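re: that chain from earlier
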Amino acid sequence: MIDSGQYYRYVIVNDTGTFEITLLAYSGGCQAIVRKNIEVVEAGALPVSTQSSKASLIVSAAVRPNPTDGNFTTEITLSQSSEVYLRLISFGTGKVVNAKRISGSDQYTVHYSLGNLSPGVYLLNIMAGGEMKNLKVVVQ
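^ sequence. v structure.
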């Protein structure tokens, strides 16, 4: 491990092979455990593609204004109509402070009126289909 914080760990693996990573999550009195195998190969062992094999569903996403006072707009453009999940997460606590689900279009404009947010950095997590995009939101 080369670096760690309350909500993250950075690891560099120098050997090739398959490694099991265990993730633990705690909330209240509950606990969840997820295990994933990660295969590390020699540099250059996998072909590098400069083009994606399929078009991205999330074409663009933006937050305006940013920095904000808690009142802001998110604009999302998709390549096709899809349901979208939005979660605003506090970087400081890791808690979801707002969540929304929208559907029925390939373009969305979502207004937020969250004047009660504490100043700080937040993560707007956007999920559509199997894709995810994260935007940083700064509240002053």
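The radius of gyration is 18 Å.
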